[in-house]
């Protein structure tokens, strides 16, 4: 049963209300066959439902909406030689301070894309239901996938806005559910989908194990979802359900923790044995933005040398807050976290020992950039180069272009006659108004960063967790790295948390240490097993494991730290745990009084 359809432009009025949006819909061939056999076959309607999710999780949408308000990331207006960037009408400063309005673009665009994604699952259900009722096996499985995907998307709504939309057919008006009623609805949808889901479709599609994992996540957060502004009540019944569903995944032996942590976020991650659910961005399914790699990185960074990668760079976006970095320092004391934990840092740029210390290098003219001596760069074949990964401090090493930010990458031959690309410490030479600066400055990422107007282009340690794609010529926008939404480590740590909340500290400690000590591909950096576990320690451990993966905000709410103060953020209003509903969505539903009511506190 092969459907060949094209992406539909679905109005948000399909959910009863409308919302102004700039949906970047492309007409895509969703013909069930990928390029070079890479993409798994799917029906056109299912492909449309899955296909919009990369756009939904884009950095300036749902991904940024989860990261910037947490104590993990901060994005100030950056000032310096290039003027000011990322001011963006205070979009990111108000999000970080928990003072965003209902017109904040992180909110409005996330809502718009997620409502469209949700409607696409309903549209797919419309198509698949009669075929499934007629006994078509592929339609039966597809229908189960769409019900599971609809439940997952509704759980995202519940987590961020405290509501879900019950909509069984495109011809119906959505019913808005909140609190315990919303939790029950999502639970029922996941359970109804289970029987007909595949167990072998891989991480790119909803499977039974994906639903087990999302059910565990639902029960783990149910105390928050039922009463989003109160003190969460984590019942033994909910926690027992978490253990039950995580047990099913762990005990079936279908997944394995990745020895090399950063392999999880590499170009070839689709077949990583730890992945349970991810957005398949290989081949023809690579249809939109995955900017998680470049958003945090220096604007002077060109991560891959060669004519194929000329459009790859960084954009000087978010950085780690000093408080988030301090968590690592507190955990390892006198030992540098780069030496103590393989999840913090992976050194890939093989800088010769004599060049490691760049403190004696002096700025030089743009006209002689990289041509002065052989003492400030080394040579390497393009395919052998990879930037350092993890949390980046100080100065990175990377290739440079002939005209600093344009032209081809610089090449040369060293004293031994070996030819290759020139690899330098990152440097900055932005223009100041209309006059180009003559001096090149080394980019030295510093810990200090705030929203007080002092942040420069080098302020803040950076996240280099996701790999710049090696198989995409425009890795900033069309990366082939699958977006990981559920993996085995989360299953272990959800089980650990449920056990700990039920009083089984020993069982929780075992699960936490299973994850920590599994990252042993670089033995000298394998995290040592913990000797005890508490809730604050477990929150810290989740931060170490899931940073830059949209986990931190909901973790903070569940562990009771979201109202704390951190860099440039002092707001403690519990109503700001949820985001404002876009005013344009409320206005669009004005013909149905009371259909959408603004969340408290906005």
How would the blueprint of this fold be written?
Layout: E1 5-6, E2 29-30, H1 44-51, H2 53-56, H3 62-67, E3 73-74, E4 78-80, E5 83-85, H4 91-96, H5 105-133, H6 137-161, E6 163-166, E7 175-178, H7 179-194, H8 208-226, H9 236-251, E8 275-279, E9 319-320, H10 322-332, H11 337-340, E10 345-346, E11 378-380, E12 389-392, E13 397-399, E14 411-413, E15 419-425, E16 427-428, E17 431-432, E18 435-436, E19 441-442, E20 462-464, E21 483-487, H12 488-501, H13 505-518, H14 535-546, H15 552-559, H16 583-588
Antiparallel strand pairs: 1-2, 3-9, 4-5, 6-7, 8-21, 10-12, 11-15, 12-20, 13-15, 14-15, 16-19, 17-18
Helix pairs in contact: 1-5, 5-6, 6-7, 6-8, 7-8, 8-9, 8-12, 9-12, 12-13, 12-14, 14-15
């Amino acid at each position: 049963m092969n459907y060949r359809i094209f992406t539909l432009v679905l109005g948000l009025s399909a959910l009863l209300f409308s919302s102004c949006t700039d949906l970047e819909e492309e007409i895509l061939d969703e013909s069930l066959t990928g390029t070079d056999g890479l993409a798994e076959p799917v029906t056109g309607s299912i492909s449309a439902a899955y296909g919009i999710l990369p756009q939904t999780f884009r950095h300036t949408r749902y991904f940024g909406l989860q990261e910037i308000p947490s104590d993990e990331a901060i994005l100030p207006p950056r000032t310096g030689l290039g003027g000011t960037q990322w001011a963006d009408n205070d979009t990111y400063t108000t999000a970080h301070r928990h003072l965003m309005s209902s017109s904040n673009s992180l909110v409005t665009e996330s809502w718009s894309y997620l409502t469209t994604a949700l409607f696409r699952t309903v549209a797919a259900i419309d198509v698949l239901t009669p075929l499934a009722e007629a006994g078509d096996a592929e339609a039966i499985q597809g229908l189960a996938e769409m019900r599971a995907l609809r439940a997952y998307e509704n759980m995202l709504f519940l987590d961020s806005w405290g509501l879900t939309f019950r909509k069984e057919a495109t011809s119906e008006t959505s019913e808005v559910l909140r609190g315990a009623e919303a939790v029950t609805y999502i639970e029922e949808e996941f359970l109804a989908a289970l029987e007909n889901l595949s167990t072998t479709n891989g991480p790119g599609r909803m499977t039974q194990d994906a639903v087990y994992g999302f059910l565990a996540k639902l029960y783990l957060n149910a105390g928050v979802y039922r009463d989003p502004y109160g003190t969460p009540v984590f019942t033994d019944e909910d926690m027992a359900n978490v253990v039950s569903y995580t047990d099913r995944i762990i005990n079936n032996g279908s997944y394995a923790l990745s020895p090399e942590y950063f392999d999880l976020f590499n170009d070839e991650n689709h077949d990583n044995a730890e992945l349970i659910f991810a957005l398949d961005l290989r081949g023809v399914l690579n249809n939109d933005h995955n900017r998680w790699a470049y958003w945090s990185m220096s604007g002077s960074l060109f991560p891959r040398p060669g004519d194929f990668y000329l459009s790859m760079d960084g954009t000087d976006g978010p950085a780690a807050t000093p408080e988030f970095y301090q968590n690592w320092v507190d955990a390892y004391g006198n030992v540098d976290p780069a030496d103590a934990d393989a999840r913090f840092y992976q050194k890939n740029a093989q800088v010769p020992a004599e060049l490691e210390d760049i403190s004696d290098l002096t700025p030089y003219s743009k006209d002689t950039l990289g041509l002065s001596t052989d003492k400030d760069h080394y040579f390497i074949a393009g395919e052998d180069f990879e930037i350092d990964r993890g949390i980046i401090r100080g100065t990175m090493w990377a290739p440079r272009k002939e005209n600093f930010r344009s032209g081809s990458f610089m090449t040369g031959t060293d004293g031994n006659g070996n030819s290759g690309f020139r690899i330098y410490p990152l440097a900055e030479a932005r223009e100041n108004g209309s006059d180009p600066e003559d001096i090149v400055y080394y980019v030295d990422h510093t810990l200090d960063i705030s929203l007080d107007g002092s942040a420069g282009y080098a302020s803040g340690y950076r996240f280099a967790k996701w790999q710049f794609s090696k198989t995409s010529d425009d890795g900033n926008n069309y990366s082939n790295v699958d977006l990981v939404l559920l993996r085995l480590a989360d299953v272990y740590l959800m089980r650990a948390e449920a056990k700990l909340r039920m009083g089984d500290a020993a069982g929780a400690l075992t699960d936490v240490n299973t994850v920590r000590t599994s990252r042993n591909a670089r033995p000298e950096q394998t995290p040592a097993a913990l000797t005890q576990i508490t809730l604050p320690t477990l929150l810290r451990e989740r931060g170490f494991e899931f940073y830059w993966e949209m986990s931190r905000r909901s973790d903070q709410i569940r562990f009771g730290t979201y109202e704390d103060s951190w860099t440039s953020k002092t707001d403690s209003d519990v109503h700001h745990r949820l985001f404002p509903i876009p005013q344009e969505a409320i206005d669009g539903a004005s013909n149905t009084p009371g259909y959408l009511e603004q969340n408290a506190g906005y």
